[in-house]
Write the C-alpha cells for this entry.
Amino acid sequence: MQKFPMTAEGLARLEDELRILRAEERPAVIRAIAEARAHGDLSENAEYHAAREKQSFIEGRIADLESVIPSVEVIDVSRLSGDQVRFGARVTIVDEETEDEKTYRIIGAYEADMKNGSISISSPLAKALIGRKVGDSVEVPAPGGARSVEITAVSYG
C-alpha cells in the first residue's frame, strides 16, 4: 500500500472534510434530489440535474478521502530542525534573475495549497529543493525554462 506523507494538521483537515461531507453535505443533497423529484418531469428539471451532479461530486470526494486517509503517514515536523530542506520545511528562496523572494512550506500532496504558500513534496520545485541547504543555488524546472533560485532560509515548525 502506498503511503502519503502528511502533517498532523493536514490529516485533521481531511478528516474534518470527510465528516462534513458524510454528516451534512450528503444528507442535504439527498433532500435536494427528493425535493426536485417532487416537482415532476425529471427530463427538464434543472434543479434535479444540478443536485445529481453535486451528489456525484460529493460521493467521489468521499471515496477519494476514504482511500487516502488510511494510507496517510503523519510526519511530526515539530521534531525536525536544521538547515537542510526536508518534508515540512519552510523554505525561503530568491529568484536569482528577478530577485523575487518567496517562502513555501513543503508538505503532502493532499494538503498542499499554493495560495497559502504550501507546495506538494512531489512538485518540481520541492523535488529540486529537497536535500539542499541554505546558500545553495538550485535549478528549478519551469514551463518557460529552468530558473535559478537561491535558498536563503530553512525553518521547521
